Amino acid sequence: MAAPKDSGYIQTSDPSRPRSDAAVPFRDIIPPPTHPKIAGIEHCDALSWTESRRQIPAPAWLISRLEAQNLETPFRGFTSDGVVRDDVWSDAYSGDEGAPVEAAAEAANALLDLLSEEERARTVYDSVTDDAIRLWSNPELYVNPGGLRLDEVSPAVREGVHALLRASLSPEGYDKVLGCCLTNGFLGHLVNGRRVLNEDSYNLRFFGGRASTDPAAPWGFTFFGHHLCMSVVFSGRRMVIGPTFMGAEPDRIDEGPNAGLRLFLTEEMESLKLMQSLPPALQEKARLSEGMGEEALGSERWNPFDERHLGGARQDNRVLPFEGIPYTALPAAQQTQILALYRAFNEYYPASVLERRVETFKQHLDQTYFAWIGPHGDDDPYYFRIHSPVAFCEFDFHCGIFLTNSSPARCHIHTINRLPNRGDYGRALVEQVGLKKVDSGTAAAEKKVAAL
């Protein structure tokens, strides 16, 4: 089934973008209660809202795409030419990275001990290679229910989930995760849909049976929901976080106890400075398209939900050639900005692990590319990505999903961070430490995923 042309909610009265002179542009584009984007949301919970979206062709298309039965198997990995390069991770996970496995394992097992038998049955999987680890999705649509839904569990279990996140991530990383949750709750407040969009409308699934500090017994978890999805895998004192999705609509909170919270400022401003500071000839080498819609990019490169993103949910096996300008062709100042952007995309790693990820990224700078879509004025929306054999970082300004702007605007941000060549889901890591390669298309795995 072909992707729809629009989200299914656009009205002729919807503005193309907020007024550029508005102090907080998103205030101009909050939908009225009768707008089809949100009509009836105040009466819905997450499941009934999702069922209501199945009655509209465009979101129904998205729901179908995200359902477990349509997961692409077997898992091969994100590549530039269809061929997995095992060599790119050969030295990446050697030795002790200083990953906080002791604290994370303690928090994980404390959480597991809180669960009822029924909660354990729908939350815990035996192996990090189970295909259920790939069933994350970033819309508010509650597809493939299972695991611990934070707005459905006890306060003790909810705090146990956050304790696991705090123990696994850097302080900055946990703050960013919490910021995504708080911004999601703020959106629910703006559209009177707090039962659908709130700080706790996220799911956790656990993989590995039980958390361990033994490198030969990898374990991990996924945490995902609207504008926040991450996969975390530990193998002893080594760890992988990815794929990761983080976003915000709107991009800041302007009232209440969290007023002033703004996410992705580094990713936004450093990328724009980089593009604006390039000589015109290099800007043109980096730019893939001036236009940002399907007319400019083609149906294979654009849809009304992912828009320009190519590494989102259900893109685990995508083949995408390198495009844009090589890192080696950039002036020294802009090369430094590429490294700063890579750090910003990965700041959720604990400090010592982040340094290892940066070193691995630096080893492949001669095969690293920077690409841009759209204009680059101070108020313009745009897309950029950094792509190498070990990194795929995307940033995009989107049309409104709940807000009413019908073209991309600077108040709705999506970011995606993938690890090409089987780095996603810690697969390259666990295969290096001796866990036999698993064909995730086996009948057993497919049966379990289909049951979700």
UniProtKB/TrEMBL annotation:
Q: Give the superkingdom in one word.
A: Eukaryota
Q: What are the boundaries of the region Disordered?
A: 1-24
One Pfam family, please name it: DUF3500
Q: What's the protein name? A: Uncharacterized protein
